[in-house]
Amino acid sequence: LAKTTQPISMDSYEGQEVNITCSHNNIATNDYITWYQQFPSQGPRFIIQGYKTKVTNEVASLFIPADRKSSTLSLPRVSLSDTAVYYCPLNTGFQKLVFGTGTRLLVSP
Amino acid sequence: DTEVTQTPKHLVMGMTNKKSLKCEQHMGHRAMYWYKQKAKKPPELMFVYSYEKLSINESVPSRFSPECPNSSLLNLHLHALQPEDSALYLCASSQDKAGGPNEQFFGPGTRLTVL
B100 and A42: CB-CB below 8 Å? Predict the structure, then answer.
């Protein structure tokens, strides 16, 4: 299964836009790109998913280039409560999520 | 109801004990999952049930035994565990629709400590 790689950590300030990248060079044709958020001692929470181009929902945008070998999660105007670990597992459609190392986002005042 | 519940929240057990973790959802989801998460590591898939049948076993040792008594319940029976099995055990559920990925809803997890 394709693995994903992300920056280990990122720092930001309240009100800024944060862009977290994910590399998935071996993505398969049937794989979807998904993003999850996880707070300490809680289960991951789904944020957004996409197959190609751009997807936007009420909390984030997901940008996927044509070759699909990477993706970028964009969080507009982050707040302190966005401090968490962000994962970009690929979903094979056979219900398998393979989580990479994740990015620890720290939002400061 | 969009919640996955897990009991107990915390569990401490000895290596000779037998215990069970329980997971419940009432969203009508027909796929249910067990993940294991060690500290500061990503979740790792253990088992997947689809329509109450085991569909994926990620080569998990037999001291972990999953069970899906009905479409709302998922259990994980534990026996003769090792200290290295100490971790956060996460349950998740999703629809099981063909044609695309299904969002997984995770529970809060059971924090297991094996002495």
Answer: no
Residues in A touching B4 (Cβ below 8 Å): 43
- Residue A87, classed as helix, strand or coil, is strand
Q: Contacts of residue B54 in chain A, CB cutoff 8 Å? A: none
Report d(CA A83, CA A108) in Å as an integer.
Answer: 9
**φ, ψ for residue A14, nearest 5 deg:** -55, 140
Amino acid residing at B3: E
The pLDDT profile of chain A, 109 residues, written as one tens digit per residue, is 558 999 999 999 999 999 999 999 989 898 899 999 999 989 999 999 999 989 999 999 999 999 999 999 999 999 999 999 999 999 877 778 888 889 999 999 9
- Test A43 with B92 for CB contact under 8 angstroms: yes
CB pair distance less than 8 Å for B48 and A87: no
Answer yes or no: do A34 and B43 touch at CB < 8 A. no
Between CA A16 and CA A79 the distance in angstroms is 8
The owner of tokens 């004990």 is B17
Tell me how far apart the alpha carbons of residues A76 and A64 are, in angstroms, rounded to a whole number.
Answer: 17
Question: Side chain identity at B73, as an amino acid letter?
Answer: L
Q: Which residues of B touch A29 (CB under 8 A)?
A: none
